[in-house]
C-alpha cells in the first residue's frame, strides 16, 4: 500500500536558470497546489532526480541553461529507464525545436495560463 501516489503525482521539477522567472513560476505552481523542486541547470536537475525520495510527475525545462543544457539533460533523462517516462514541458526564449520526447513546447515570454493548463494536463495523467 503506497501513500506517496498523490504527492508524487503533484510534484513538479522546474529547471530554469533565470532566478526571477523560476521564483515566479514556482509561486504560481505552489498556488495551484503543486510541490515544486527547482534546479538552475541540467546537471543540478539530474542530481535532484537521482537523489529525490519521490520521482516528480512532471519536468518543466528551459533549454538554454548553463553547465548542462536542456537538450543534454533530455538526452540523459530519456536514456535512463527510471526517468524516461516523466512528461517534459519545454520553455525557451530561442527559436529552437523541442528535443525529442517533450510533451509540450512554450516560447518565452510565457503565456502563464497555457503553461498551467499543460502542467495540469500532464500531471493528471499519472
Structural overview:
Strand 3, helix 4 (70-78) and strand 4 form a beta-alpha-beta unit. Strands 2-1-3-4-5 form a five-stranded parallel β-sheet. Helix 3 runs parallel beside helix 4 (70-78). It is globular and about 30 Å long. With 126 residues, it is an alpha/beta fold. 40% of the residues lie in helices and 19% in strands. The longest helix has 13 residues, at 19-31. It has helices at residues 5-9, 19-31, 42-51, 70-78, 112-124; strands at residues 11-15, 35-39, 58-62, 88-92, 104-107.
Name the shape in a single word. globular
Strand content: 15-25%
* Main sheet makeup: 5 strands, parallel
Q: Element order, helices and strands?
A: HEHEHEHEEH
Number of strands: 5
CA-based gyration radius: 13 Å
Strand order across the biggest sheet? 2-1-3-4-5
Residue ranges: pLDDT <50 for 5 or more in a row?
Answer: 1-9
Number of helices: 5
Q: Assign the structural class, choosing from mainly alpha, mainly beta, alpha/beta, alpha+beta, or little secondary structure.
A: alpha/beta
Distance between the termini: 17 Å
* Average pLDDT taken over every residue: 87
Percent of residues in helices: 25-40%
